[in-house]
Amino acid sequence: MNNDLKLGTILLVFSGFLWFYAIPYHIKGSEQALFPKCLTILMIIPCLLLLIQGIKSYKADGKQQAPFFIPSASFKSLRVVPLMLAYIFLINIIGYYVTTGLFVFLFMFFFGIRKWLSLCLYPIVVPLIVYVIIRKILSFPFPEGILF
Amino acid sequence: MFEQFLSGLHMVLIPQNFLWAAVGVSCGMILGAIPGLTDNMGIVLFLPFTFYLGPIAGIAMLMGLTKGGNFGGSIPAILFKIPGTPQAMVTSLDGYPLTQKGQSGKAMKQALYSSVIADGISDLILIFLAAPVALIALKIGPPEYTSIIIFSLFVISVAASEYPVRGIIATLLGLLLGTVGTDPEFGTTRFVFHTLDLADGFHIMPMVIGMLAFSEVLLQLEQEYATRLLRKLSKEKTDEAKIQSHSQDHHLSWKEFKTTLPTIFRSTGIGAAIGIIPGIGTTVGSYLSYIMAKQSSKNPEKFGKGSLEGIAAAEAGNNAVNGPNLIPLVTLGIPGNLAAALILGGFMMKGLIPGPTFMQTNGDMLYALFIILFISNLFTMGFGYFFIKHVNRVTQVPKPYLFTGIVVFSIIGSYVGYASIFDVYMMVAFGVLGYILTKFKINLPTVIVAFFLGTMLENKFRQALLISGNDITVFLTRPISLTFLVFTVVAVFFLLKKKKSVLNN
After folding, report:
1. CA dist., res. B438 & res. B219, Å (int)
2. Burial code of B406-439, b = ≥16 C-beta within 10 A, e = fewer?
3. In this complex, which of A27, A88, A134 lies closest to B190 when CB atoms are compared?
């Protein structure tokens, strides 16, 4: 399945989701729903064009396009996302500065840094810089949580 | 007019006025360079201080904050692909690739010179054309707004992306994202999925930072892992990733700059035309200028890969909006954007009420302000050059440390706008969305600009129907509206024809 077919299919499913679920159940009123409905109908046109384009190039080439990502590298990079989500979740509980220090340590370790001096110094320096600029100079408070 | 101009010149020549204009420009540059803070926040923070200053010094400081902030936002956009202000997003498209090549200094200098020239010309437009331009602004109502936005969206869809179908998809996605939140007329919620935080819709900074900066971190991480995997397979030693550059890589020669001058002037014209229309904003001015520059360039394939023309177009289009944006404010008392609305507050604190008679009753003061605005560009040049020299060293930091800093500042930038942790979650979500859309070759700035224009389009469309009694032909019977609709059809026809001939070749 080539990229045009993949994208066309995904967007067609998304348009169906909007038309049959999101708009009827999450928008009250016909006038309020008019603009989203028009956009959903308009979205179907490029979807169909992509599907036609995808079928044509599949028939013409007779083979799949090169994959648009290297799976192992892609999945490795996306591992950062759960780390980020955990970091954001813990900000309100533990406190921004301590959580940031922990996150910086883990992120650098995850990125392949193994110099212990850097791994110890950076998690202290980064929150300190943020504290000085944002908290002290601009007086903008961050959540301080249980610790700091 | 000439007597008022001379009187204004006499009022300006006090050291205090220059001092506070310089303070405004320098502080604006610093605040603009910190993602999420923006020049608007700078105006809000400094507005109370203007109470203690004279009228010209106070207003000059506020306007200096806007000027400084406009350029300041480009610095992180070029260095890290995190726009400091939403309008700097377009500068990152070519600025960041140049940083990746070790030429960040060149990119920032190009941005600085383009900003200053465009800002200077737009100030001259403000000085000499304020009165006649105000008359045009008066004739623009909801039908004209709708047609102008439709024109902008069509041009962006077709011209910005290599694949027009994907460009249309990007525009529609952006418009759909703009429908999330509260209906502007009835006040009922749309697509909030029982999440109260979404009642206000998505906020622009988390979207911009997520889609551009965080998605870039994910893409760079993927590239890093892919490189390590390939090196492992070929059994080569993995080197620490570092941007290598020499001092001459940061130098912008006169020859290089000269080639961008036509782009700067063209983009200044486009930005100024956008600036006359209240509410359209610097982001649209910047992106439209960029697209037009790409269409007109002898080397369009270089756009998005580190083209100086691209940076020139983005910055000139962005800064050229400022001067004309003040025309509706000073001549009609209608602020064209948030910054102008805040500056209106500054005027009122001084007992000055901008409006149709302002030019007659306080013409000399108005010209004094215009003159100090023009002179403030020299401060932008001076402070900007100083900043560039020092911040450039950041590019020598190895990638792992740099990306860690980028991620931390992405979170700060997303949080500070509304002090909302939800916005930070949204930044991550938009980052993942941006990563996926990039894989499918969907242009991200198009999505963002369409999001930005979507709410305005719906509002103005509904207003137009309301005032015309649901008569759809109102868009065809009003001359300016009809003109823009015709421009839309003609522009799309020629752009598609050009794309087809490029593909055939």
Report:
1. 9
2. bbbbbbbbbbbbeebbbbbbbbbbbbbbbbebbb
3. A27
Which amino acid would we find at residue B89?
A: M
CA-CA distance, A78 to B377, in Å (whole number)?
44
Q: What digits encode the pLDDT tens for the residues A69-100?
A: 556 777 778 888 999 999 999 998 888 999 99
Residue ranges of alpha helices (H) inside B277-417 are 282-296, 308-319, 322-325, 327, 338-349, 358-361, 363-391, 399-416
**Residues B105-160: tens digit of each pLDDT:** 999 999 999 999 999 999 888 878 777 776 776 778 899 889 988 988 888 888 77
Structural domain of B244: 2-504
Give A54's contacts (C-beta < 8 A, 6+ positions apart). A1, A2, A3, A4, A5, A6, A8
Q: Which helix (H) or strand (E) segment is B494 a member of?
A: helix B479-504
- Which residues of A, range 71-130, sit inside 8 Å of B by Cβ? 72-74, 76-78, 80-81, 84-85, 87-88, 91-92, 100, 103-104, 107-108, 111-113, 118, 122, 126, 130
Q: Residue with structure tokens 């109102």?
A: B474
pLDDT in tens, B44-72: 777 777 777 878 888 888 888 888 988 99
Kindly state the helix (H) or strand (E) to which residue B190 belongs, with its residue range: strand B189-190
Choose, out of A7, A28, A131, the residue to mutate when testing the contact with B (most B CBs < 10 Å). Answer: A7
CB A36 within 8 Å of CB B179: yes
CB atoms A81 and B428 under 8 Å: yes
Which one of A18, A73, A143 has the shortest CB-CB distance to B229? A73
Residue corresponding to tokens 């004209």: B144
Interatomic CA distance for residues B69 and B47, integer angstroms:
15
CA distance B79 to B270: 26
CB B139 within 8 A of CB B464: no
AA identity, residue B176: L
Q: Which amino acid is at B270?
A: I
A56 vs A54: CA distance, rounded Å: 5
DSSP string, B238-253: PPPP-----GGGG---
Cα three-residue angle B59-B63-B64, rounded to 5 degrees = 115
| Rounded Cα gap, residues B27 and B33, in angstroms | 10
* DSSP of B59-124: HHHHHHHHHHHHHHTHHHHHHHS--SSGGGHHHHHHHHHHHHTT-HHHHHHHHHHHHHHHHHHHHH
What is the structure's pLDDT at B336? 66
Q: How far is CA A73 from CA A10, B213, B432, in A?
A: 23, 19, 15
For residues A104-123, give the mean pLDDT: 86
Give me the phi and psi of A137, to 5 degrees please.
-80, -50
Nearest to B64 by CA among B85, B49, B43: B43
**In chain A, residues 18-37 whose CB comes closer than 8 Å to chain B:** 18, 22, 26-29, 31-33, 35-36
Number of structural domains found in chain B = 1
DSSP one-letter code for A67? P
- Compute the distance between CA of residue A135 and CA of residue B356 in angstroms, rounded to an integer: 43
Give percent of chain A with pLDDT exceeding 90. Answer: 38
Q: Which helix (H) or strand (E) holds B164?
A: helix B164-178
